[in-house]
Amino acid sequence: MRRTVFNEDHEAFRETIRAFIEAEVAPVYDEWFAAGQAPRDFYYKLGELGIFGINVPEEFGGAGLDTHKFEAVLYEETSRAGVNFGGSGVHVLLALPYIKMLATDEQKKRYLPKFVSGEEMWALAMTEPGTGSDVAGMKTTAKLSEDGTHYVLNGSKTFITGGVHADRVIVCARTSAPTAEDRRHGISLFAVDTKSEGYSIGRKLDKLGLRTSDTAELAFVDVKVPVEDLLGEENKGFYYLGHNLASERWGIAFGAYAQAKAAVRFAQQYVTDRTVFGKPVAHFQNTKFELAACQAEVDAAEAVADRALEALDAGELTPAEAASAKLFCTEVAHRVIDRCLQLHGGYGYMNEYPIARLYADNRVNRIYGGTSEIMKSIIAKSMGL
Description:
Organism: Streptomyces narbonensis
Helix content: 40-55%
Cofactor: FAD
Number of helices: 11
Order of helices and strands: HHHHHHEEEEEEEEHEEHHHH
Pfam families: Acyl-CoA_dh_1 (PF00441), Acyl-CoA_dh_M (PF02770), Acyl-CoA_dh_N (PF02771)
Domain Acyl-CoA dehydrogenase/oxidase C-terminal: 235-383
Protein name: Acyl-CoA dehydrogenase family protein
């Protein structure tokens, strides 16, 4: 079936990204993998390429577009090449919507030009040790100083993607205690400068997958955050977080679909080249049937991911629809990538093969952005159950 989601501009962008990956990423990706992160100067290259400014208004150095379709092309091309652009996805998909939605004109003038160039990389610090998906259970506090010039931030965060290289982090903290009626009340968002005294990076976490995307623990001990770096209004943070969850979950869904599509490509290439018992593995009926079944699942996931993309761009993607897309696409990717690894035999277990790295990278899709169980709960609630 012919896809209608992309136009000539998106396909031109695809060619640019594919050439960029071949020239700048593929030759050094093994070094990034061994180091456990992409180098800091790589993000300047992405800034020069214009990737960070696509959805940023022109007055701040961006392209002034309002679409997620270029991000979708990025998902497909990085997955196709078996690479990852480090913490850049969080910078654009997670942090930017909060800046655009909540920042004042003065804040945008301070934040966005450096955001576009890659001079300031951003991350989002929501999860805390022991709370997981229970955002309302956070313990990190931000107390307004007596003279009203700054907040004093204390607490810790974990699983913060991009946390090692981040120059600013959107930190979720309690400015008021929860009420008896609403335990989600009292959370506020702050654009915290990572050079602030009392701000520290703990461990760079040793993850199963996404090895080139740095993930860290963060700690705050009496960090002074100027009142000028409060994003939005006090105590409305939980509402703001919920507002952007649909786009985050779409991103995970689309990324998972793209990984599944790449897995079929890797497996088809491998079984065509690999010979056993005197003939290519692709000639065996089981191989054909397995790949055919995987392709059918990828086709279905592509349709779901594309439909969610169109709804997101139109401002019509509901929380339940985003949850459904995430649940479906991540479960499809789990099944497809596992079957494609099986077709590689023992070599599928070796990190030198992209299918092995893809298998590890994919596993977190059913956990972050809300677990599959949370997605089912959201969908069930929308059904009136």
